[in-house]
Amino acid sequence: MSEFDFDFDLFVVGAGSGGVRAARIAAAHGARVAVAEEHKVGGTCVIRGCVPKKLLVYGSHFAEDLDDAAMFGWDVPQKRFDWAVLRDNVLAEVERLEGLYGETLTNHKVTVFKERVILTGPNQLSLASGRSVTAGKILIAVGARAALPEIEGQEHVITSNEVFHLDQLPKRVVIAGGGYIANEFAGIFHQFGSHVTIVNRSDTILRGYDEQIVDRLVKISVAKGIDFRFNAGFAAIEKREDGSLLCRMKGTQDIEADQVLFAIGRLPNTEEMGLRELGVELTERGAIKIDADFRSSIPSIFAVGDVTDRIQLTPVAIREGQAFADTQFGGKPTHVDYGCVPSSCFSHPPIGLVGLTESQAKNKLGVVRTYTSDFRPMKNVLAGRNERSLYKLVVDDGSDEVVGIHMIGPDAPEILQGAAVAVKAKLKKADFDATIALHPTMAEELVLMR
């Protein structure tokens, strides 16, 4: 069968960040492209992930900002938070963004099927409506879903998906998990006035982050009033007559709550898609195994983004979608470099990082030097707030190359993006030292460490 015998050159399953980028770029290269999405165009990040969550982060920051305003001469007679107003405004923004993503596909003449599909062959798909379509290449970009515990009372918990639709703000929130999603929502709910308890099965949160930075976050969070239960787990969750929840715990005392949020990881969305039946090779967690060109064990089927369970970050999925389209339809073979991916945790305060942690650098390079700046931001000084920021450079002692930057403090992710360029470019500590500081800023600490 020739390429002209197929209905489409490319059929993308999933209209998230990676899928939309791949579809748009492939269409721009002249390919006949279709996309199937059973939920909303935009995927996890836009609809129920990083975008609406960041808007909640912005909203939560006003709690302390309004308190601090008095020391800067502002009279704020009443501080009252209305959850429904923020929730509805965030959902309206999500709806607007979904429309823009849809317009992007339409403007590039991409055919959109708003329904579920199942793969029935290496080049064939069956739509929920009953229609069968064929494609020269199939790209799986269906992302991942929140994992849930197998415990009694599982039906009483929520995931990050449901947070954006809560009818009211819970007074007591228990959050299961120690990753970035758990810590971000801990900060959000705490600033909105909820009492927050984080339950983690080990004694380590934010695994893979620099230990000094994580330790600082824990200390700040505890000082704010967030409760941590380490080395603990859930035996069962009971719903009481008044609607409250009782968490029967293992390794710690039982906890009463109004809402229980599980953020214990995300699993690839490969179930009931026909992949196993076709012989597409999957990992134990259900991720699609791919090569450097995103090709699965079946030559005509590819995958990008969270469904491959490598680096579950939106910008990575976008970069993969672009590389796939350029390679397969643009005549520009492209591989993604995963060696220096910046990331952040929008906790309160936020964390930004790029490159190797101190322990990772020691294991990989041997002898390293570290430089730290532990300071109280100027705004906190005048506001009478004792919270301190911490910046850290990890340097290869042999080459003087800055191999890692780790930060916790106000606007750390915003500052980190520019600093990530320096790590990616393999600049040396001497280059940082030779850069004149921009004063007065927090970012200037990056070039003042000696």
Keywords summarizing the entry:
about 450 residues, alpha/beta, FAD/NAD(P)-binding domain, Enolase-like, domain 1, 3 domains, seven-stranded mixed β-sheet, five-stranded antiparallel β-sheet, flavoprotein, redox-active center
Which band does the percent of strand residues land in?
Answer: 15-25%
The CATH class designation of the largest domain is: Alpha Beta
CATH architecture heading of the largest domain: 3-Layer(bba) Sandwich
Q: What is the CATH topology assignment of the largest domain?
A: FAD/NAD(P)-binding domain
* Helix-strand category: alpha/beta
- Estimate the helix proportion, in percent: 25-40%
Would you write up a description of this structure?
By secondary structure, this protein is an alpha/beta fold. It has three domains: 3-145 and 267-329, FAD/NAD(P)-binding domain (3-Layer(bba) Sandwich); 154-264, 3-Layer(bba) Sandwich (FAD/NAD(P)-binding domain), CATH 3.50.50; 349-447, Enolase-like, domain 1 (2-Layer Sandwich). The chain has 13 helices and 21 strands. It has helices at residues 17-28, 43-48, 50-69, 83-107, 160-163, 180-191, 211-224, 275-278, 314-329, 358-365, 378-383, 412-424, 429-434; strands at residues 8-13, 33-36, 111-113, 117-121, 124-127, 132-140, 144-146, 172-176, 195-199, 227-229, 233-239, 245-250, 255-257, 259-262, 266-268, 301-303, 343-345, 351-355, 368-375, 389-396, 402-408. Strands 1, 2, 3, 4, 5, 6 and 16 form a seven-stranded mixed beta sheet that branches. A five-stranded antiparallel beta sheet has the order 17-18-21-20-19, with helices on both faces. The chain has a four-stranded parallel beta sheet with strand order 10-9-8-14, with helices on one face. Strand 11 and strand 12 (245-250) form a beta hairpin. Helix 1 packs parallel to helix 9 (314-329). The N and C termini lie far apart (66 Å). 42% of the residues are buried.
